[in-house]
Fold this protein.
Amino acid sequence: MKAYLVFLIFLLASFNLTAQLRPDALKDDQQAPHYIQLMHKEVPNVFEVERAYKLYYANLPFTKNTYSQYYKRWMLWARKFMDNQGYVLGNC
């Protein structure tokens, strides 16, 4: 019973650790929208990325694709590590 409990605690702790990892970068794609390129800057700004994303879909119908899904995952991650000006802190 103890071994089962230790295993369960270890398993639950590992889920928490992986939730803090930066989403894998997309391949270097020249056709990627501008907001994707902003995410891969040395020091990305969450507010700039969000503005570029909204501007991109202001003139186009929204389509769920690899880029839009990556944007959602990246924003969930980046908001945890940004400062008051929207810059992602450190080299996470």
The mean pLDDT is 83. The longest helix spans residues 2-18. The chain has four helices and no strands.
